[in-house]
Design brief:
By secondary structure, the protein is of the alpha/beta class. The longest helix has 25 residues.
């Protein structure tokens, strides 16, 4: 690796020494794009491309006070990282989870700028959220929190400025409460200010399904390039939220047998194939725990999570789909998966594999579909939602799904072409990073020093 790259890595590490997830994300990108940087070193250095790409344009942090059902005042912290507006308004989800902090949101926002560039659509990158824990909260509490959160956030967003959406802990219900409050404050119906809206007030058909479906379209392309397919394969999925559920749905529709899913308490294993209607009832309707699956499927097994290891990766599978959270698949999990004969890993979550795990999988011939590319279907469909809002028009489910399929197929092609160009055969992690970085760097240089 050349001096320029090393210097920027060193500077970033020094500047952000208390932010391990952000540094992990930056390290992965900078080390894998080194062939591109080598080929453009003078130009990138002259325009401080790496220095600017590793520093967000703006970070907003704010207090979120609200009153719980017991009448107590609770204070959470809210954030919005407006990372890059190079190719469009800041765009990216909101995460509500007690683990949320600056490091996690900066890594997510950083990833988002590359992911959004890969979609080919005009969207910049951002991420936000709060350390608010939605688990166990009443609907009333969720609404009050969302209203307070938006009472500050509204001044920083807008349909041409910054467009938030969902992520962990933020789904259709939360987007509804956030949108209602935004509209009330602004006294204007600006449909495109948030995506992931319900269909009845400006949402897009197929947005809910898009991340999981898109992941399977990417997997289909990746496996197809290696003369194999999803049909007949065994699949394990971590998580049982939005991404996991719709990855499962599409995997089943493509003829795979999904045998495991999980939540933060443990995993279910059903050798007959997961009954997704049952999972949806537990998660989307009752907001319950995955363990409750055993109430309808007595033959299924539940493996409680003890310690830090994720029981879902101990189950033998052809395809593993981490769809829960960052660093949920570490080196030891990768070793177990390889021992059990896994052929492909598709990252539905953001940065679910640690760098060591990814390296081990690739070195052992496992195909890795990187998050920035493989889970880009969600944000791509958000951009399609924005375009429908601008047109004041609706596409049918099939129209949106077809566009999504086309976008995912093109993203796979970009990853493949970029990895081929630099002789990095089948390294789609590097391919995704190079293809996205090149586009952003060109946009940055074209727009001057801003
Ligand atoms: P949801 O909140 O719908 O679901 C999250 C799932 O992951 C739940 O099953 C949850 O279990 C589990 N989970 C969350 N945190 C942890 C943790 N720390 N340890 C173990 N399990 C955990 O979120 P999404 O499905 O929307 O998001 C999942 C991942 O996909 C995230 O990484 C997100 O950034 C990424 N993503 C989401 C997109 C979207 O459109 N929603 C788009 C692209 C990526 P429990 O309920 O027990 O907490
Ligand atoms: O990580 C992601 O891409 C998302 N959470 C979706 C973002 C969006 O704006 O739809």
């Amino acid at each position: 690796m050349k001096e320029y790259l090393n210097n920027v890595l060193e500077l970033t590490t020094k500047r952000n020494s208390t932010e391990p997830e952000f540094l992990q994300a930056v390290h992965e990108v900078l080390t894998t794009i080194s062939p591109l940087v080598d080929a453009n070193e003078e130009r990138y250095k002259k325009w401080a491309v790496l220095e600017r790409m590793t520093e967000p344009e703006r970070i907003v942090m704010f207090r979120v006070p609200w009153i719980n059902d017991k009448g107590e005042v609770v204070v959470n912290r809210g954030y919005r990282i407006q990372y890059s507006s190079l190719i469009g308004p800041y765009k990216g989800g909101l995460r509500f989870h007690p683990s949320v902090n600056l490091s996690i949101l900066k890594f997510l926002a950083f990833e988002q700028i590359f992911k959004n560039a890969l979609t080919g659509l005009p969207i910049g990158g951002g991420k936000g959220g709060s350390d608010f824990d939605p688990k166990g909260k009443s609907d009333d509490e969720i609404m009050k929190f969302c209203q307070s959160f938006m009472t500050e956030l509204y001044r920083h967003i807008g349909q041409d400025v910054d467009v938030p959406a969902g992520d962990i802990g933020v789904g259709g219900r939360e987007i509804g409460y956030l949108f209602g409050q935004y509209k009330r404050i602004r006294n204007a119906y600006e449909g495109g200010v948030l995506t992931g809206k319900d269909i009845v007030y400006g949402g897009s058909l197929a947005r809910k399904e898009a991340t999981g479906y898109g992941l399977m379209f990417f997997m289909r392309e990746m496996l197809g390039a290696h003369n194999t397919c999803i049909m007949g394969k065994t699949v394990t999925i971590s998580g049982s939220g939005n991404v996991a559920t719709y990855a499962c749905e599409k995997a089943q529709a493509m003829g795979a047998k999904v045998v495991a899913m999980s939540d933060s308490n443990g995993a279910i294993y059903d050798e007959n194939g997961i009954d997704l209607d049952c999972v949806k009832e537990i998660k989307e309707v009752k907001r319950g725990r995955i363990k409750e699956y055993l109430e309808c499927h007595k033959d299924a097994k539940y493996i409680e999570k003890t310690g830090s290891e994720n029981p879902v990766w101990t189950i033998k599978t052809d395809i593993a789909l981490p769809c829960a959270t960052q660093n949920e698949l570490i080196l030891e999990d990768a070793q177990t998966l390889v021992k059990n004969g896994v052929i492909a890993v598709g990252e539905g979550a953001n940065m679910p594999c640690s760098e060591e795990a990814t390296k081990y999988l690739q070195e052992n011939g496992v195909l890795v579909a990187p998050a920035k590319a493989a889970n880009a279907g969600g944000v791509a469909t958000s951009a399609i939602e924005m375009s429908q809002n601008s047109m004041r028009y609706y596409h049918t489910f099939d129209e949106v799904e077809q566009k999504l399929d086309c976008i995912m197929t093109n993203i796979f092609k970009s990853c493949q072409e970029a990895s081929d160009e630099f002789g990095l055969k089948d390294d789609y992690v590097a391919g995704a990073n190079i293809a996205a970085f090149k586009k952003l760097a060109d946009a940055m240089i074209a727009q001057g020093v801003v």
